[in-house]
Design goal:
The chain is mainly alpha-helical. It is built from 9 helices and no strands. The protein folds into 2 domains: 3-85, Rna Polymerase Sigma Factor, Chain: A (Orthogonal Bundle), CATH 1.10.1740; 90-178, Arc Repressor Mutant, subunit A (Orthogonal Bundle).
């Protein structure tokens, strides 16, 4: 079913919207959640909570890209779940986020930065990357894959993955600096 029709079902408060969402995006959302949580049980709960979150958000919100809208809900719920998880689980996602923190001024708070402007800069940066580099960057920093998982997925060595990520973070740091967000 087309995304527009699924969104229309949510707006009509038709419960089949959830079934259609599960059919079309269930596997994708499971992957997104599992890459962050690394737990089948937690992943299952987060995906179910995603359907509820979508139900509660639509209306009034009308997503233009349902896949990204659902992924955002799943990611947010996954990171909230991590807050309650063991320290070992937190270490993985914290390490991923820590790698990017070096690109942003430490005294810059979330309240000081308009999310849309930062999003514009990040999207511009991603568009400047080649398809392969962009895929590797997103695999690490959006989908939270490990270095080993990225290497396996793209058929490259872990050393090459680390090199690419370091190179991309350095370029991102420069780009953010040019736009007033850098260190």
């Amino acid at each position: 079913m087309e995304d527009e029709k699924i969104v229309a079902l949510y707006f009509d408060r038709d419960e089949s919207a959830i079934a259609e969402t599960k059919t079309k995006y269930g596997a994708y959302l499971t992957t997104v959640a599992y890459n962050i949580l690394r737990s089948n049980e937690d992943t299952e709960e987060v995906v179910l909570d995603t359907y509820l979150g979508a139900w509660n958000a639509m209306p009034p919100e009308k997503p233009s890209l349902l896949r990204h809208f659902l992924a955002r809900i799943t990611r947010n719920l996954s990171f909230k779940r991590i807050e309650y998880a063991s320290a070992k689980k937190r270490e993985h996602s914290d390490a991923v986020i820590d790698e990017l923190e070096a690109c942003i001024t430490p005294d810059l708070t979330a309240l000081e930065v308009e999310a849309r402007e930062l999003s514009r800069v990040l999207n511009g940066y991603l568009e400047s990357l080649g398809n392969f580099e962009c895929a590797v960057f997103l695999a690490r920093y959006y989908y939270c894959l490990t270095i080993a998982e990225i290497g396996k997925k793209y058929g490259i060595s872990e050393r090459r993955v680390k090199y690419l990520l370091t190179k991309m973070r350095d370029k991102l740091k420069i780009k953010l600096g040019e736009e007033g967000f850098g260190v």
